[in-house]
UniProtKB/TrEMBL annotation:
A ubiquinone binds at H221. Gene3D superfamilies: Cytochrome Bc1 Complex, Chain C. Its cofactor is heme; heme b. It comes from Mesorhizobium neociceri. The chain crosses the membrane at residues 47-75, 96-116, 131-153, 165-186, 198-220, 251-268, 310-330, 342-362, 368-391. This is Cytochrome b.
Amino acid sequence: MADQSKADVAGRQPSSRVAQWIDHRLPVFTFVNHELNDYPTPRNLNYLWNFGSLAGFMLVVMIFTGVVLAMHYTADSNLAFGSVEHIMRDVNYGWMIRYIHLNGASFFFIATYIHIFRGLYYGSYKAPRELLWMLGVVILLLMMATAFLGYVLPWSQMGFWGATVITNLFSAIPVVGESIVTWLWGGFSVDNPTLQRFYALHYLLPFVIVGVVMLHLVALHRHGSNNPLGIDRNGSGDSIPFHPYYTVKDLLGLAAFLLVFAFFVFYLPNYLNSADAFIPANPLRTPAEVVPQWYFLPFYAILRSIPNKLAGVIAMFSAVAVLFILPWLDTSKVRSARFRPIYKWVFWLLVIDVIALGWVGANKPEGLFVLIGRVGTFYYFFHFLVVMPLLGAFERPLPLPTSIGSAVLPKGGAHPAAAQVPVHSP
Ligand code: HEM
């Protein structure tokens, strides 16, 4: 016991005298040590818990490559397309920086979507993590806005017409709609003022995201991570220090993620891009199809599945907004789907529904796609607004384990191999 309290003290004090001097005045070392080193973490987190740090990593990559691109990009409707070509051909490693940024957006969304569905499966949005979840939804909205604005900057046919279609949606708002669109454009069509304000906001929003991510992490560290069992930690046998256990696990996940990411950047850099992204914007020629990036497709399908424009716009925004109130729509007392025999299946139905909507969004709204889009849209809202509230009342959850240690350690932690790791309380 005496040894352990010595370790406690040693763990909190920086070893170098310079660091001690700084820490006494500005406790940065104590903070990092507390939040990232001995931070007690459930001992049973699986690899799905890597995606938060992967999203954080991608945020840093996007800001870094974005700032470098900004050094060579020109936000002028006559020069933007050419400046991007200049980055690709003349700037040293410009092609690589641009492809990392371009594909990075997709991989940022991949990490974030897996992160969200992980939260849905294990009920991480439930009390006491409601605000953590809601901050996540704010981040998602900011990410979507940033990605949309960025898509317009190369001033290609795709970006230009994407901007025209999406900004025009606001014209569906009664009375003030047209005025809002003119205000957004900074004129009477998508033109140079639109490009310049989109650029200013595209540069700004990622830093706003950084701020909200910090709040997200403060909220996370208030009660600590949820875990695959969805039960609260109960004593030190349930926790292990974040370092080295999860720093190593996160690094291994990052290595695997980077392999796939690098494969896209170096071997399939335009796989997720559209042919119209290679044609300079021409306000007099509408492309045959204006298709958004893959990460917007399910929402785009919802927009098009409703025959009325205003109702479609409302449905599209509601598809994200409904996530804000999810912690109160889900009435089940049990967090993890592992112990919810019906929700387990309902969750996968939602996954299939979202993928189907994405498929519909990528195709022309005709024939069977119209029907699938409408059924998919109906089911999406049915899931959140009807199934989630009712399921909590009718489902009989399986019995929960009494502690994480008793559920995941051999012989409930009584085995000699399952030595308990000392953990400092938060
Ligand atoms: C820039 C985007 C984001 C970053 C950098 C980020 C970062 C993180 C990190 C590092 C964690 C802890 C590790 C983990 O549990 O995976 C976390 C947890 C969490 N995040 Fe995010 N996040 C982002 C977006 C979101 C979004 C969009 C949502 C939901 C709509 C969300 C909801 C949550 C929840 C509920 C937890 C707690 C999970 C648990 O303890 O089981 N996050 N986030």
